[in-house]
Design goal:
This protein is an all-alpha fold. It has one domain. The chain is 72% helix and 0% strand. Helix 1 runs antiparallel to helix 3.
């Protein structure tokens, strides 16, 4: 049971993280909006950057991208919270029931992985060359986030003592 409780607690911790990220992005909208604006406008990448044609310079695009990020983070929080609830309800059930209840948490972890890996590393980091900016580079933070999600995803899918059959 300890392993099951640990899995549930870790999923809840990540749900809380994603929720607080959404809360902060909404209640302090301008701070992180500025980050998105600078990354998408590519205004702090290398001066001789030949890929600056990719830059987005319209305010509505910056707001749209920011709200897409917030939506992804909120979806992650909701799926993880619901996944933890589903797991809590079957915490003492047989291994098949517990395994089947993992689905929502798995989807939540996967959505979060796409937000922070695909959104920040692939799109922000490589397409908009965020890595070239000394000021507006969120790759280290994104790496910590998606690795935590990935670690819990791997741990969640490991069998626990109740899943082992002689």
């Amino acid at each position: 049971m300890t392993t099951r409780y640990t899995k549930i607690a870790m999923i809840l911790a990540l749900a809380a993280f994603a929720f607080l990220t959404v809360f902060n992005n909404i209640t302090d909208y301008r701070s992180n909006f500025n980050f998105v604006q600078h990354v998408l406008s590519m205004d702090t990448t290398f001066a001789d950057n030949a890929a600056r044609y990719r830059a987005l310079d319209k305010s509505w695009m910056w707001h749209g991208a920011y709200w897409l990020i917030i939506f992804g983070e909120a979806l992650t929080a909701g799926l993880l919270a619901y996944g933890a609830l589903k797991l809590w309800r079957v915490r003492a059930a047989d291994s098949l029931a517990f395994k089947q209840a993992k689905g929502w948490a798995i989807v939540g972890l996967t959505v979060g992985f796409f937000v922070w890996f695909f959104g920040f590393m692939v799109v922000g980091g490589e397409w908009f060359l965020m890595w070239q900016s000394e000021t507006w580079n969120g790759q280290d933070a994104a790496f910590r986030f998606y690795m935590a999600l990935l670690g819990v995803l791997i741990f969640l899918n490991q069998p626990d003592a109740l899943d082992v059959h002689p």
